[in-house]
């Protein structure tokens, strides 16, 4: 039997996500209608470049030891108690 509280919580989150998408779409539409094509292209490329720039800034602030890939397991895997070697 499904848990009604979890279902209600999921449907509430889904409803708020749908509402946020509608509001964001309307906001973008209102902004784009006031911009020329060149400005829209400039905004698109500006937003597209922000993510890589933020990533490289974040990576440059990390200490060098965090850049190396880790080798080996972090912990020794355990076998289930009913299996013998």
Short account of what is shown:
This protein is mostly helical and 85 residues long. It has two helices and no strands. The two termini are 41 Å apart.
Task: Please name the defining characteristics of this protein.
single chain, 85 residues, mainly alpha
Give a written overview of the molecule:
There is one protein chain. The protein has two helices and no strands. The relative contact order is 0.04. By secondary structure, the chain is mostly helical. It has a domain at 37-61. The chain is flat and about 70 Å long. The longest helix has 30 residues, at 4-33.
> What is the distance, rounded to the nearest whole angstrom, between the alpha carbons of the first and last residues?
41 Å
Helix % is: 55-70%
Figure out the total of helices.
2
Mean pLDDT, all residues? 84
Radius of gyration equals 24 Å
Strand content: under 5%
Number of β-strand runs:
0
Structural shape: flat
* H/E topology pattern: HH
- Uncertain segments: none
Instruction: State the major sheet.
Output: none
Tell me the structural class. mainly alpha
């Amino acid at each position: 039997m499904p848990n009604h509280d979890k279902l209600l919580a999921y449907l509430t989150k889904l409803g708020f996500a749908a509402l946020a998408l509608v509001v964001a779409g309307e906001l973008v539409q209102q902004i784009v209608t006031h911009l020329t094509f060149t400005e829209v292209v400039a905004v698109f490329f500006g937003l597209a470049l922000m993510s890589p720039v933020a990533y490289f800034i974040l990576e440059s602030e990390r200490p060098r030891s965090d850049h190396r890939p880790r080798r080996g397991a972090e912990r020794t895997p355990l076998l289930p108690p009913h299996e013998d070697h």
